[in-house]
Amino acid sequence: MSIKVTRKVSRKEKSSTFLGLVVNKTVFIAATAVLIASVVFTLIFKEQADYYFAIAQSNVSAHGGWIYTFSVNLFIIFCLYMAFGRFGNIRIGGEKAKPEFSLWAWFAMLFSAGIGNGLVLFSIADPVRDFLNPPRLAGQDPALIAQEAINFSFLHHGIHGWAIYSVVGLSLAYFTFNRKMPLTLRSAFYPILGNRIYGWMGDVIDIMAVITTLFGLATTIGFGVGQINSGLTHVFGIPSSLSYQVIIIVAVTIAATISAFSGVNKGVKILSELNVRVASIIFLLVLILGPTTFILKSYIQNIGSYLIHFVDMATWTESLRETDWQKTRTIMYWGWWISWSPFVGTFIARVSKGRTIKEFILCVLILPALVTFLWFTAFGGTTMRDILLGDTALIAAVNDNISTALYVFFDKFPLAIVLKILGLILISSFIITSADSGALVVDSITSGGKLKTPPFQRVIWAIATGVIAAVLMYGGGLNALQTAVTISGLPFAILLVMMCFSLYSGIKEDFQKSEREKKLIEKEAYRKNILLLVNKEREERKTKSSEIYAEETFTEETLTDNK
């Protein structure tokens, strides 16, 4: 179905030249100032930074956690309504729009940008940590605890997170390609803010998006760099230290810069397809060399258990318990997903032209979650089985350093060295893909929504991401990174709720206008058909009258001749 929008939207050009850069000065300067202030504060007041980070995270989790819980569940309901309601057949870009990328390339890019190295890092660590520190079943049957650990891993890495991405991605894709607006977060709020999005309100939205995105990316890079360093230590004996992690960050930043410089159709696309291929090879090796039947049986059981307990887990807020489990686990994950949503959503929107809303939601919301569940079953599920059988090697590895868990897991398999090297390649490729696509998106936001800017601008944001990751790790390690995403994600969660309302209002308005136009066209066609029928009937009557007159004239002439 096509929605044709003929209404002209008043726009103000927000981009200008500043220090040789094509940027929105307000967004660029404000976002840069906040980031620099954060970096300087962490460097100068290292000990105080760790203390204040902890206080901030505690307050946000204690008083704002319910906002996260409400929001992420609302996003799932909204996405399913958009997919299976009356708007599902609307095509992004219009009825004649064609997809720019094949289904395989499209899925590879959105999956690689959206899941990152979290798929590799937490597929073992999360089930083990939740088994050792159960959220709700302490003291009960270990098998039940193990199953709930898998269920919560599915909750934290499944449909809820991809619903967040779907809301942002669909909103930006629709307003960019159907309403021809700039590819920037402010555009998604046009139906409720109108032309005010081109003023200070829009600037605030984009500034929040830039800051949230860069802290989310820095967190991912921090986790990933730690896992790379641990892998190099485990496989090659290279020491694990902050100095080596900074060197790895520099290397990742350089690679991401090169990829971002080449653009979406080259660097990002190639790396995304590499990610999916390497991940597929690793999974197949684990499936074939490991407990094949157990993995396949568990996949079915785990999905069933997850669905049965879905509502209960998704709405659990620890309201009757004096514990901090959800604050440090679920709330942190919701903040992390939301902090990634501006960049992943913008990136998904950029590559999704030509897809219907139903196709978009099914591929972004459901398919990546099913792939994630399969991966977590193969790695986390197998780990749970081994622990229940008495193997505690992975418990020791997670307690010591969660970044080593993957490599200890591979020690159990033939071709362990091959799996470890492939794991290092996959983690590195995931991080580089996230960093370069993030640089592209932040550059788009700070430039006022332009899809094409001078390539060297992306270099600035690629470097900025690496610097933030290095400084936050120096200032407080992974705790500082987790705190950053928890804090920065909360105000953006409120914006995403507003975005749902805005998208619905915009599509409904265009849909109703399209329906009115269709009725007018049908009415006009009906009127023309009636006129054709009336004219045809008149012609037939005229022809018939002429024939009768001719016949009567012929008869009179014949009678005259006979006389």
What is the spatial order of strands in the main beta sheet?
1-2
Shape: globular
Order of helices and strands: EEHHHHHHHHHHHHHHHHHHH
Query: What is the overall number of helices?
Result: 19
* Approximate strand percentage: under 5%
Rounded mean pLDDT score: 82
Task: Tell me what the structure shows.
The chain has 563 residues and is mostly helical. Helix content is 78%, strand content 1%. The protein contains 19 helices and 2 strands. A two-stranded antiparallel ribbon has the order 1-2. A hairpin with a 2-residue loop joins strand 1 and strand 2 (21-23). Helix 9 packs parallel to helix 19. It is globular. It starts with 15 loop residues before the first strand and ends with a helix.
